[in-house]
Structure formats: structure tokens, C-alpha cells
Amino acid sequence: MKSKLEKRVDFLTVYAIASSLIFSVILLSSFGKEDKKETFDEITTKKINLIGEDGSLRMVLSNETRQHSGRMNGIDFPKRKRPAGMIFFNEEGDECGGLIFAGKTKDNKTSSGMSFTMDNYHDDQVIQILNDESYENGKGSIQRGLIINEFPVGSNIVERNNKFNELEKIENQKERDEKMDALWNKEGSKRRLFVGRNKENSSGLFLYDENGKPKLKIYVDKNGTGKIEVIDNDGKTKNIIETK
Q1: How many of the other CB atoms lie within 10 Å of CB of 142?
Q2: How many CB atoms lie within 10 A of CB 181?
Q3: Per residue of the chain (244 residues), what is the pLDDT tens digit?
Q4: In sequence order, what are the residues at sequence separation of 6 or more whose Cβ sits closer than 8 angstroms to the Cβ of residue 60?
Q5: Measured distance CA(46)–CA(60) in Å, rounded
Q6: How many CB atoms lie under 10 A from the CB of residue 220?
Q7: Can you tell me whether residue 70 is helix, strand or coil?
Q8: Where do the structural domains in the chain lie, given as residue ranges?
Q9: Are 229 and 238 in contact (CB under 8 A)?
């Protein structure tokens, strides 16, 4: 006959084995389930993070207070003020574009706008659809259109920002500004195209060379005059359409 102690040990052994089997069945069955799908009629939230199968970000939809600060080379940028909207991230986790919007009137000054951008790989925006408005004392500054910029091949916003941070340490302001301008001219973006309505209230097509200098303008100015202008390497402008 088994003693009470032996019976108790046998019970605990059977209990442990049974519990392990049940836990294993539950764990394995959870892996075999299909993706859970839910249907909602309405969601009210302040922020949504869309992730890939590996858990990394693909898109953030947020209000302005909780907006993502941006990320490059796997590192988040410091917290900064950004408008509400959507921020997009590629498979490497880097920010690659976004759709943002804002609009408010304060102290009799109105600012309103929306921007849809696509970023250069490892850098800032190179394609932008923009509406930018500001009004004060009955006067307005408005720009609407498509903008195309260009960065040097192989550019990297993090590396460039690190260089700017080093230049910030230069105490002589003139030397600091000159070196910053030189760095931007070498590694910064250059305007290549604008189609739309500019701040001078001219509407048309504006083309630039690889250095960001204007070369051709086909537009109607604020007075309603149509113009086709060619700009030479010395910056001199010739209007092909002569008006009397």
C-alpha cells in the first residue's frame, strides 16, 4: 500500500503533466488561428500606429500634440512641434513622407495649409503638393502648387545635421554663417520645378537648373500679362513674348 505522501507526490506529478499539456495545446492552437479581424462603425482616437509584421512602424496617424517626431537610421528625432496628419515610414523604419495639415487664426493673424510630401531616401522631401496661406491686416501671402526638389546622390539628413551641429560651435558668426551656407550649397536640396501660384501672385511653370537657379518661366503675372522668360547664366532675363 502507498503511503499518503507517495499518493500526494503521484497526484502532483499527474497535475503538473496535465497542466503542461493543456498549456501547450492552448499555446500551439493560438499560433494556428487566422488573423483577428474586427469591424467598427466609428473610432474616436488621438493617435494610431500602423505596424509591419515585424512590429516596426509603417504609418502614424496623429493629432498635433502626439505626432511622431520622425526617424532616420533607426533613431528618433528629438521631440518637436509638428502638425496633425499622417507620417509614413519605409521597411527600414525611416520616415519617407507624410500628409500634414493645420489652420488657425490668432491675434488677427491667420495661417492655414496642407502639405503632401515624398522624401528622398535617407533625406528630406523632394516632391511636395502644397497649399500655404497666411493673412494679416487684409493682406495675404499665398502659395499653391507642385514642388520638386533634388538632393545630391547619397545624401543623408542625419550626417548633414551632425555637420551643422559641429559648425554651430564656431564662435565667430560670420565664419559660422559662411561655412553653413557652403555646407548647404554642397549637400542641401536644390529647387528643380514649381508648377502653380507663387507668392508674387504669378501662376505658371518655373524651371531651375541643377544648382537651383531659375532658367525658364512660363507664367501669367499678377497683372494678367502672359510671359515666357529665359534666364541666362549671368542671371539676365529675356522675355520671348514681346509686348508693346
Answers
A1: 15
A2: 11
A3: 555 555 555 555 655 565 666 666 566 655 555 778 889 999 999 999 999 999 999 999 999 999 999 999 989 999 999 999 999 999 999 999 999 999 999 999 999 999 999 999 999 999 999 999 999 998 999 999 999 999 999 999 999 999 999 999 999 999 999 999 999 999 999 999 999 999 999 999 999 999 999 999 999 999 999 999 999 999 999 988 865 5
A4: 47, 48, 49, 50, 67, 68, 86, 87, 89
A5: 11
A6: 14
A7: coil
A8: 46-142, 152-188, 189-244
A9: yes
Length of the chain, please? 244
Q: The C-alpha cell of 115 is what?
A: 502639405
Which among 71, 195, 214 is positioned nearest to 127, based on CA atoms?
A: 195
Alpha helices in the chain (DSSP H): 4-31, 157-167, 173-187
**Which whole-number Å values give the CA distances from 46 to 53, 140, 158, in the listed order?**
23, 32, 29
Nearest-angstrom CA–CA distance, 81 and 70: 11
